[in-house]
TrEMBL record:
GO terms for cellular component: membrane. The chain crosses the membrane at residues 12-35, 96-120, 132-154, 183-203. This is LHPL2 protein. The keyword Plastid does not apply. It is found in: Membrane. GO terms for biological process: single fertilization. Its main location: membrane. Belongs to the LHFP family. Keywords: Fertilization, Membrane, Transmembrane, Transmembrane helix. InterPro entries: LHFPL. It comes from the Eukaryota. It is a multi-pass membrane protein. It comes from Alca torda (Razorbill).
Length: 228
């Protein structure tokens, strides 16, 4: 018989697992990893209403995508085009970024799988006498290691020609040049830290769902058990 067990700690772990997976996925897909040096609008275009030059813009560069301004749309409100610069894996600008993409993709796939499974831990707490919480916590720890490897390798690719075109000639491995780090990089770091927090917190979720109070509720014949 399925017993639906919901505790504060198990629910918090489930929510954190889902948030972490989405945060890492969004960061990976974003083009805002590097913010390039300011560039003026094409031909120093003059604003017809004010007579002044349009403000310069900052192109952004991701692992496989970029955002830049298109000249024929410079007077439009939506003048920035974002999309992948690499049509296939081999066209990613740096070998280090290719490795980053692999490590991050593996880590994110594991996190997404754990996030999916975490939803069902309210009904199923163990499989083959193994705690789902402990297994998921182990997988989250492994995913965190993949994410760390990807984030360590990513700055090594700042010396590639693509990054230099955005960050200037002084850009090199682990040196930003004229660029700055975008929100996607910080989100990936924050998500990695939360991944390890989730891995540790899974043990607390296991303790909460197998406590004496839960066992007492089960023995009383309750199918829905909600505990603080």
């Amino acid at each position: 018989m399925c017993h639906v067990i919901v505790t504060c700690r198990s629910m918090l772990w489930t929510l954190l697992s889902i948030v972490v997976a989405f945060a890492e996925l969004i960061a990976f897909m974003s083009a805002d990893w590097l913010i390039g040096k300011a560039k003026p609008s094409s031909s120093e275009a003059v604003d017809n209403r004010t007579g002044g030059s349009q403000e310069p813009y900052h192109p952004t560069l991701g692992i496989y995508g970029r955002c830049t301004r298109i000249s024929h749309m410079q007077l439009s409100r939506r003048d920035t085009l974002c999309g992948p610069y690499a049509e296939n894996f081999n066209e990613i600008a740096s070998g280090f970024w290719q490795a980053t993409a692999i490590f991050l993709a593996v880590g994110i796939m594991i996190l997404c799988a754990v996030a999916f499974v975490s939803v069902f831990t309210m009904c199923v707490q163990s499989i083959m006498k193994k705690s789902i919480f402990n297994v998921c916590g182990l997988l989250q720890g492994i995913a965190g290691l993949f994410l760390i490897l990807g984030l360590i390798l990513y700055p090594a690719g700042w010396g590639c020609q693509k990054a230099i075109s955005y960050c200037g000639p002084y850009a090199s491995a682990y040196k930003l040049g004229d660029c700055s780090l975008g929100w996607a990089f910080y989100t990936a770091i924050g998500g990695t830290i939360l991944t390890f927090i989730c891995a540790v917190f899974s043990a607390q979720a296991e303790i909460a769902t197998s406590s004496d109070k839960v066992q007492e509720e089960i023995e009383e014949g309750k199918n829905l058990i909600c505990l603080l």
